[in-house]
């Protein structure tokens, strides 16, 4: 008999693991939901969900925490993709949280709704009684995330306690919670930025156009290129110029920087990432730069 | 390109962070902004060298106290392989974290300071790696530069460790003399140790054969989720009924005769389905959906095996337990929730046979409880049958966790022994 080598490629291993995680959640929780922002990680997560339950439809709704400061291209993509799948989309609006007085809008040039999202997210989780919430976060993104579990326990207040996490062994996930508590679930924990792009290429997955090089009016702040938009406050000392840019991450216009790049295809993006020397969050996210522990502090409060 | 998951054991003093930092840096997995942040923090703290442990110690409390609290996962890739490092801390909660990191590891690196030789903690690390059945063990004898790259010293350590390891179940043991600080034998062969004829550490990590570490003999498919797309708009799937799960052992093919447990009924595999189309075979760790020729009553927590090769159907389990809870102890009569593959049940601790001293391997048969980070052998009674194999034969069908019913915390990791 011919001896066959049962080697499994890294993308197949990661996909199989993520599918296993999704099915565990569907089997063990009453009311899961999947956070879908229209960013590349949540797009990959959505494809995994499609695969995990095929030929049945995805057995949980999608939710987007909409700051009102998103890129138009991303919102258009979000709605189109949701419609294609016939999935139910819940939009939790930061603007509504502001209007209801749940949060207070920051003011000034560096105002951002980034931190306000946490309240909107937690309010929505409570209102819909979600007990498991899928997020697309990866451990390679940031050092606080490097220590977070795949099934990450949140208390009644939605808080994460990094010093008191449940040990996680083999592929056995502890799904037990009390009413009011929930679990954040990260099926892409072991993926790197490059894995995500390799997977997008292999699967031929569509992504929003702003990930590819395009000409845009931008200005420079703290070494980042921010877009010219109504919601972004720009000072007189911050002149606009046109540049060929693309986005490595997709967040709020107010805090997501573009990178100068000529990459117009997924292949070119992969080539570029393979040689880049700066992390995607370091290059493009003002929200992570505010302190050494910026991400940990926000996560403790209940952030994504 | 495949994935190698490895755990690193050792304390900061052994040069573990330096080694990881070097692997990450030389494979370009550390980015400039990360390195700048670490350099800045090192300077602020008055450290003379760039403290690479700051790369992995991400939590505020860790940086403030200069300790590692938890398992950190790090990623790097070479053109040959993608690597996932489970970096486990050396001091605090050591056993719990190393057991966690080792549970999924294909390989463990144990660091030894060439000046100090085999210490108590080296033996503890090796024991835990063997308990968790990590298939490949690398003893990295570090700081060779501080013993003048002495072959004699290296051989001494090798002999001492080999003699100890013969008491353990270590499958594949490799010794590599390195200097993490200078890079000797880390990425490329060192010219300082011409007497060493083996490969560099990275070369070993890239080439160690792991595909056959999985169990490809005993068919085990824990049913995870039943797929019945009644709402599907496509009428082709109206009567579809598939059983989804991740293969835990063996190779499954369409047409194979299989047995369903607990019913004991047999049927044949009609099709192995995936979103991307049916496949001709499925093996670990693939996530697939099985359809059968006969209509059986199958639900989550059931097991698919072969008529002539079945797991043990057990309500009484013998197991090694690593207790991981702060405060509460494990004692006879403790009631817990057990999660084993996709089945959850209740477990009663019938007996604690002994507590094992992880440093000396001495069995204390007088012990009446297990506290945090202690390991012991227990008998459990389960409220419903579990479909188990010896952990040494299959890590997936032999491993389980125990959950405290009051706090919902995961309080123990268990490994099935003597399943019959």
Protein described:
The complex is a heterodimer of chains A (304) and B (420). Chain A is α/β, with parallel strands linked by helices and 304 residues long. Chain A folds into two domains: 10-195 and 293-301, HUPs (Rossmann fold), CATH 3.40.50.620; 208-288, no CATH class. Chain A has helices at 10-28, 40-53, 72-85, 94-99, 117-127, 193-203, 266-275, 280-284, 294-301; strands at residues 32-35, 62-66, 89-93, 132-134, 151-154, 182-185, 214-221, 224-227, 241-246, 259-260. Chain A has a six-stranded mixed sheet with strand order 3-2-1-4-6-5. A four-stranded antiparallel sheet of chain A has the order 8-7-9-10, with no helix packed on it. In chain A, α1 packs across α2 and α6 (193-203) runs antiparallel to α7 (266-275). Chain B has 420 residues and is α+β, with helices and mostly antiparallel strands. Chain B has three domains: 2-213, Rossmann fold (3-Layer(aba) Sandwich); 221-305, Beta Barrel (Elongation Factor Tu (Ef-tu), domain 3); 312-417, Elongation Factor Tu (Ef-tu), domain 3 (Beta Barrel). Chain B has helices spanning 16-26, 32-44, 53-56, 60-65, 94-103, 120-131, 151-165, 201-207, 395-398, and strands at residues 2-9, 72-77, 81-87, 107-113, 136-142, 172-177, 221-222, 225-227, 242-246, 251-252, 257-261, 266-273, 282-283, 287-292, 303-305, 312-323, 335-340, 343-356, 363-364, 375-388, 399-403, 410-417. The model of chain B has no long low-confidence stretch (mean pLDDT 90). The interface between A and B is large, with 64 and 78 residues.
Task: Summarize the entry for a quick read.
Chain A: Belongs to the PAPS reductase family. CysD subfamily. The complex is a heterodimer of chains A (304) and B (420). Chain A is of the alpha/beta class and 304 residues long.
